[in-house]
Structure formats: C-alpha cells, structure tokens
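Whiteboard transcription, Tuesday session. T.W. wrote the structure tokens on the left side:
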C-alpha cells in the first residue's frame, strides 16, 4: 500500500510516517518505558528499515500538533486468511490520557471499513497490564497466551497475549 493515509480520531491524528519523523519517533522509542517493550540496537536504522518495508504500514500519532507515538499494521492478503495485525507505542509523557485508545479505535475503524478486514489481532506482552486494558477498551478480547513468545534483553523468554477483534464485535464495543 503506497497511498498516503490520514485519519482523524477524537484526540489524535494518524498520518503516514515519513522520514522526517525519525528523530521524534526514535526519541520516544529510546525512553526507558518504551524501550522495555520495543527493544532495538540501532533505532534509526530499524526505523529506516521499517519505513522501507512494504509489509508494514507505519502511521505517526499526533496530538495537538505534536508527535506522540507510532501505530503500525500489517495485512495478510490471502483471501482465506485475510486479517491485519496492529502494534503501537506512545510517549510515556502522554500515557493514561486516552490517546492510545483513540489511536487504536481510529485505526480499527479504518481497517474494518476501508480495508475490509474481518479480524484484527494485537499481541502485547502477557505482563503488560496497561496495554491489555487499553486494547480491551477498544474491544479486543484475549485469545490465549503464547508461551515463551518473545526474547527479553536479558535473554529470557516471556509470554505474549494474543488478542483479537472481529468486525462482528463492533456492535458490542465502543469502537463505532
């Protein structure tokens, strides 16, 4: 997908990420709280690599004109498995203000209504209670624990929680 995306939520704006966003997004990713979940060695090189990856759609999250994070998605195009997966990080300075819920809700609407997906997934660390609460507010439901899903900085493996949201769940959630 190469077309530029711009989506307006209640409090945030999502727009296609551009090279000029590198500095602000890498600064956010380098904060201790974000880096604990979104590790990396060379954040600028990883940003560039992701920006060039046709399988990932990166959207910069803005609030009041400031860059506050990134939300991204990837799509499974096989019609028998068509779905999208999401991931997000926000500047810790704006945590707890509803920006994450608004960004996810805005992207969910786009993926269901414009991209015609029937199922979306997100996979927070199983011990990331704030993220799980955020995703649940949008309507994502736990599917199951993926044991030893992700390697941590110290080499240990940690569990992930697979969550999904179906387009048919929309009437039962506050997404719409």
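and on the right, the sequence the group agreed on:
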């Amino acid at each position: 997908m190469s077309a530029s995306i711009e989506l307006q939520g209640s409090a945030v704006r999502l727009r296609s990420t551009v090279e000029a966003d590198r500095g602000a997004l890498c600064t956010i990713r380098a904060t201790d709280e974000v880096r604990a979940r979104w590790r990396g060695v060379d954040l600028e090189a990883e940003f560039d690599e992701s920006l060039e990856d046709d399988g990932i759609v990166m959207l910069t999250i803005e609030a009041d004109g400031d860059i506050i994070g990134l939300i991204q998605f990837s799509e499974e195009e096989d019609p028998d498995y068509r779905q999208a997966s999401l991931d997000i990080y926000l500047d810790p300075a704006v945590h707890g203000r509803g920006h994450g819920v608004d960004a996810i809700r805005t992207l969910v609407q786009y993926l269901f209504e414009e991209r015609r997906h029937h199922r979306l997934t997100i996979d927070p660390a199983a011990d990331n209670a704030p993220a799980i609460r955020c995703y649940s507010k949008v309507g994502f439901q736990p599917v199951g624990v993926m044991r030893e899903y992700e390697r941590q900085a110290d080499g240990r493996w940690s569990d992930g929680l697979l969550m999904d949201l179906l387009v048919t769940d929309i009437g039962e959630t506050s997404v719409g």
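Someone added at the bottom: The mean pLDDT is 92.
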